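Q: Got a minute? One more chain.
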Amino acid sequence: QVQLVESGGGLVQPGGSLRLSCAASVRIFGVRDMSWYRQGPGNQRELVAVLSSDGSTTYADSVKGRFTISTDNAGNTLYLQMSSVKPEDTAVYYCSYRRWIDGDHWGQGTQVTVSS
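A: Always. Here it is, folded:
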């Protein structure tokens, strides 16, 4: 079973930067896309960013221009570079790998709190 572990969350001041990581327990093949989601207090889970197998990226309007999704050369780790963060970015962030063979795989989430 593939395991995904998010890390890099924590407390950051408004306007600051943070990089989240999602490490896979094994090399993942047959990936349709890789995504970051977030769920703030009392809110539904929302899609933040997607990196598709063709290399294209999409972002939620709320983070466009501030967040960047990427992966390392080996494809073992997914990143979310967060810049110019705002209090509204406070949430638990989850990574997700969607495979052709068996659908979605989720990490356990990492807390990001933006506060002064």
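A: The mean pLDDT is 94.
Q: Perfect, thanks.
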